[in-house]
Input
Amino acid sequence: MPRLPTQYLQIFRQLLIALSAALLSACQPDAPAPTEDSDRGITFGVTIADGLIASPQDGRLLLMLATSESAEPRFQISNSANTQLIFGRNVEDWEQDSVVAIDSGQLGYPLDSLNDVPPGTYYAQALLNRYKDFHLSNGKVVSLPPDRGEGQRWNRKPGNLYSEPVRIEIGPDGANSFDLVLDQAIPEIEPPADAEFIKHVTMRSELLSEFWGEDVMLGAHVLLPAGFDEHPEARYPLMVFHGHFPSDFGGFRTEPPDPNAEPMYSARFDIDGYNLIEQQEAYSFYQTWIGEDFPRFLVIEIQHPTPYYDDSYAVNSASQGPYGDALTYELIPYIEERFRGIGEGWSRFTYGGSTGGWEAMAVQLFYPDEYNGAFVACPDPIDFRAYQTTNIYEDDNAYFYDSEFKILPRPGSRDYLGNVRSSMQYDNRLELVLGDKSRSGQQYDIWEATYSPMGDDGYPVRLWDKMTGEIDHEVAEYWRENYDLSHILRRDWETLGPKLEGKLHIYTGDMDNYYLNNAVYLVEEFLESTTEPYYGGVVDYGDRAEHCWNGDHDNGNGISRLRYNSMYVPRIMERIAETAPEGADLSSWRY
Output
């Protein structure tokens, strides 16, 4: 049989991809409602109870349907196979006495629309993720969900309004009309109190306040060394632990495990009584921390949430502002001055895993003289040729592999045996339901909010079409030049390399759940092949280790993840001994 010409095969392939996307994405956010013949008439009318708001509200109205009453529907939405249903729409100037409808015209996840919901019994709940206007210094006005101390978690954000779950019956057709009332508000979060070893600081950032057009606060949880008050002459090195929004300093406990605590099972690690293990590890770290032979450090966990995510990714960006400069030149010096840090680049070290791993490596690259080592565990993609399972420069579509004939979805996550748990397309579908314009507060949207240029509307420019997965290669090129850490290393090694010798230590499991090891392979290939200068650090892999392996070959991730604050200290001490300048203070903090 003769082969079809290549141009026809490509047209055929694009038609197949479009058909697949249409089948999965029949109801776009602003698509017209289905015809009467296809509309099953499922409608939810949502109102706000009297007295809950003082002015009209903007935001994202979400409807959740769950078949189980094991938890509120708002807590049953996830990327996993057992996720329940969610539908979303924007609201503007919503008054208390007006009804907002969610019907078949709204986008859903994982089902396209309410028309696709099977008949049966459900528990229904509505929630409003409230937005506010930010008047940026460049004249743009953007409507975003402000952080309220919870780390951009839409289902737990203080001030968000929600309804109590109600049991409903959805029939096969005909009248399926339901009313929900937002009569609850998520309460405020009580800030953590200072303790003997742990202090909490906040400061106003001049740089960020200028960008956002209002006061922006940065914060940190500070772990003080033993003997801090007894040794006022001592000045200390600093370890900066990067990661997601911390509610308090984690993994530190001055009391033994609670003998009355009920053991709890961890499904993630398949460990019974994992809460007791966490308590024991936290208490063991405290005992190590105060030990006579342990070097005295300051350790900080920084708080830098933005209206886009639970942290800023610790770099300057077009849509989030100069967070890199604010953290490095405002917050860290403020903490060092207040708590007697040495305050010099040779005495600062960064570390973290996942988001924190990317951040630790990024600040070491972008501020090479301000830090003396980065311990980079299971980092988010550090080479965008392996942006999880997509090469954003060469691939045309982020959701499907390039193929002449097959419609083969790209996986988004897997287990350590390779069993696929989610796809790139479905992961992005959930984000689009939670919020358009990169406002979901989820993973792909924060990458866009960090790495993309700002669009004319003031929001980040999409790397790809959120519905179809078609990649915008002009945006990809902007990402490459500004945030592809691997590309930046290769491009600037002549000047950057001498400043990074001995500073990069990268660790990842070779079965990372999000395929993040693939980018590490590409970075390792460059680092190991470059000798002028040789990078002189570490790239290490955990056999069949999942996200987020951090270099511990003796313990599983369930244990090693609890030891971040002590596991890199021996290597840090070696680095200090090798690189501290002549006359540096190497003794006042060794008591």
Q: What stands out?
A: Confidence is low (pLDDT under 50) at residues 1-37. The chain is about 25% helix and 20% strand.
